[in-house]
Amino acid sequence: MSLISDIKDQNIFHIFAFDIIKYYDSKYKKVIIDSSRLDLENSCQKWRYFVLKKLYESVEYADNTTYKNKPTHKDFIFSKFIKNGMDPHVKKIYDIISSKNEGKYILLNQRNSEDRYLYDYNTKIKLEDYLSSQDLKLPLRVCNFGIMTPEEQYEICANCAVFISAHGAGCTNLIFTPPKTPLIEVNFRKHWYCDPVCDDHFDGVISPNEKCNGKLCYHPIFHKADYHNLCYFIDKPYLEIEAQTYGRGFSSRNPISKRRIYIHGDNIVSYINVLDLMGYL
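^ thats the sequence. predicted structure below, dont judge the formating
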């Protein structure tokens, strides 16, 4: 029997939440990816193929498939922060995909320069430089998923003891991390004013740290609960670090597209020390 994977999205979280989770069924042995109007060389599509290969015996491409699968799971709720109980369906998917390794290092996901790049608030230095100067229980490794193959992303996540990342699609790679590995997500609750970003913010008339008039805001309340809810679904430890300020404005109208993000690096260190005391490291 064959399953059809047909979402056209180029965001790995959307692919995972609204295609893989929604339609996964263990009775299928083969999955067919509807490749019509799909860029198979896109890194997100390569990631999709890699994940599906872990769930099914065979993965193939075909054009213009017409069969529609019956959903096996309710839609993923990502706009409300809900402390869901463990979801057996999603947990089963995670158990198949995830590594069973013991963590060896702390992993920091850093994007390209001026693209949600993380800095320490007090010293204004790159977060990796700040953390490297601290007396941490485990060594620090830094990655940039945007320049890595899916296999490389899996390998580096499969051996991490703590996963640190700013909010973004790269957080979806928490599904590759060992069961004990917590996610520490840098959120953008502070100074969350407009979605999409208003003209005054985007054009630099006002700082991203200043409130706009908000009259045309679609989402004036922070609603990015994607990974918070996913962690609860798979019974994974979840922690948040709140951004303090943002620098250099926005790279797009998406309000998560801040160029620079400043956080209290000492809060990250405190979290890591607590995780050590709790036996996660």
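DSSP finds eight helices and eleven strands in the chain.
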